[in-house]
Automatic annotation (TrEMBL), chain A:
<dbReference type="GO" id="GO:0005886">
    <property type="term" value="C:plasma membrane"/>
</dbReference>
<feature type="transmembrane region" description="Helical">
    <location>
        <begin position="300"/>
        <end position="322"/>
    </location>
</feature>
<feature type="transmembrane region" description="Helical">
    <location>
        <begin position="167"/>
        <end position="187"/>
    </location>
</feature>
<dbReference type="Pfam" id="PF02653">
    <property type="entry name" value="BPD_transp_2"/>
</dbReference>
<keyword id="KW-1133">Transmembrane helix</keyword>
<feature type="transmembrane region" description="Helical">
    <location>
        <begin position="219"/>
        <end position="237"/>
    </location>
</feature>
<keyword id="KW-0472">Membrane</keyword>
<dbReference type="GO" id="GO:0015658">
    <property type="term" value="F:branched-chain amino acid transmembrane transporter activity"/>
</dbReference>
<feature type="transmembrane region" description="Helical">
    <location>
        <begin position="91"/>
        <end position="110"/>
    </location>
</feature>
Automatic annotation (TrEMBL), chain B:
<feature type="transmembrane region" description="Helical">
    <location>
        <begin position="141"/>
        <end position="160"/>
    </location>
</feature>
<feature type="transmembrane region" description="Helical">
    <location>
        <begin position="190"/>
        <end position="212"/>
    </location>
</feature>
<dbReference type="Pfam" id="PF02653">
    <property type="entry name" value="BPD_transp_2"/>
</dbReference>
<protein>
    <submittedName>
        <fullName>Branched-chain amino acid ABC transporter permease</fullName>
    </submittedName>
</protein>
<feature type="transmembrane region" description="Helical">
    <location>
        <begin position="65"/>
        <end position="85"/>
    </location>
</feature>
<dbReference type="InterPro" id="IPR052157">
    <property type="entry name" value="BCAA_transport_permease"/>
</dbReference>
<keyword id="KW-0812">Transmembrane</keyword>
<feature type="transmembrane region" description="Helical">
    <location>
        <begin position="97"/>
        <end position="116"/>
    </location>
</feature>
<keyword id="KW-1003">Cell membrane</keyword>
Amino acid sequence: MISLWRDMNRRGQVTVALAFVLLLFAPVAATRYVLSVLTLILYFVYVGQAWNLMMGYAGQLSLGHALYVGLGGYVSAALWVHFGIGPWLGVFPAVGIAAAFGAAIGWLGFRFGIEGVYFALLTIAFAEFTRIGFDHIGFVGGAGGLFIPYEQSRLGEWWNLRGSQLFFYYLAFCLAVLAVLLTALLARSRLGYQWLAIREDETAARALGIDVFWAKMKAVLISSSMTAIGGVFYAFYYNSLFPAQLFDMSRSIELILGPIVGGLGTVFGPVVGAFILTPVGELLISLTEKAGINAPGAKAIFFGLILMTIIYLVPTGVWPWLSQRLGFTRRRS
Amino acid sequence: MLSIWLNVVVQGILTGLLYGLMALGLSAIFGVVRLVNFAHGEFAVVAMYAAFVLFRAWGVDPLVAMLPIALVFFVVGFALQRTLINSFVGRPDHEQFILLVGLAIVLVNAVLIVFGPDAQPANLPYAFDSYMIGPLLIDKVRVYAAVAALAVCAALFGFFRFTRTGTAIRACADNLVGAAVIGLDVRRLYAITFGIGLACVGAAGSLMVTIADAVPSLGPAYTLLAFTIVIIGGLGSMAGALVAGLLIGVSEALAGFLIAPSMKSMFSFALLIAVLVLRPQGLLGKKPA
């Protein structure tokens, strides 16, 4: 973490510190709408960072991270709705179950040498399988959805995640900051370097005596656990859960766009990516509304075009390009 | 009782042939160009709407419309590979993935804007005709579509087996460096392969409109379906794609009949997981060297 700070020059340090302070005091000036957009951005920073650990550092392409969001959300919400168990307690079984699924996928994939696109497909298959399964589980509402009831009397119970927009903003802020710090910490840890070795050349990593299987398993376990906490946040922020929304593949895609656009395998990539894509999405909504284009797909078309443009022009992501352009990183000699 | 089962299986086989044809296109692109075409199902949906429009506006039967649509798709695929996609060949999976997901989003939403989100049935005049063969009652449309799909597959097998270009494309898939060394124009062959892949999906989409309603949301579902079939059948194995297509068609039909139609794709994914774990190279795939 400290070395991450030291690697940046004064200009980089000032920029990061300024961004932190701005976000810390953003609610003072922000309207309710802006605050909700910022909350969404920070949520994507958090889950994007979780995915970045697995793909950007350990090099394992998962296209089914919506599975962990969904499991985390559903487990914590079901415990709250059916048994009155609050999310601070419910987060533990939520994380446990998501991690168990992650372990199962990881074990199947890594044990049997399933790599690259094949591994990605395995993760999609698990997510889709679970989505259809949840459509048929009556206990959590099936396809009709699970709803966390709105109770006036509980409105202030922030310990049960029954808070205002402001509360959820700071919760997302904490999650995002913690995720960035954790990534910075892991990136410079022994495990982080093992991940990089595996990402670059698995055979060579094995030859060096790295336990490749366990290093990859740790990546899946950490990533799925973190993502499940994001799912708990999602469930109590939006209060309504549908299998078709939570587990859908488009959700997995949405979650990974930020880190890829921002820059995989970098600490600030997912942050930059989320701060580009979410506002662009919001902007497109309001622009198409203003232009009087009443077509539900217009925004998505622009979004698709923007994605293609970004990956065509800066395939390694915006952050590495940007930090070099603005001279944030100290050149290593 | 047995006859019902038989009917379900036959129906699954006929649908499976269409799935197989669609997956064949993906298998060619995936196996030769080594590119993950995540817009495959979206192209199928575009073809479905093209066939739908041709039928509704001018009464062109989808079985006939299949040919011009496949031709147009070939040209589009050739041009796409030449301009946009070629620079992404050999790049990391996730970069290709983003490019094609972007393309998929554009395609499916363009269809959504033009035709709206509702299902559009083609309403062929012979949609409800059927053949009686002993205890079997088979939809006429399914038979036509399946026969057409088989014909396209046979033409494709012939092309890859007997023509010079087809052989050259297989050489690229087997040994890229060797192919380049003996002077094959790899870029052109890749463009042709991508064109053929899209022509397959164009033909499959046109035929699909005879047995299913056209809906934009089918796009991602078909992409997943095609990938599932290709992986189950074995990467680079064209026969494998057909066999796996039949397998998925039958398993979907049986699951829909025995359990619930909404759970049918769950079985496809379970099958996929099982194949990935037990036989990662696919049913008919070669063992990696």
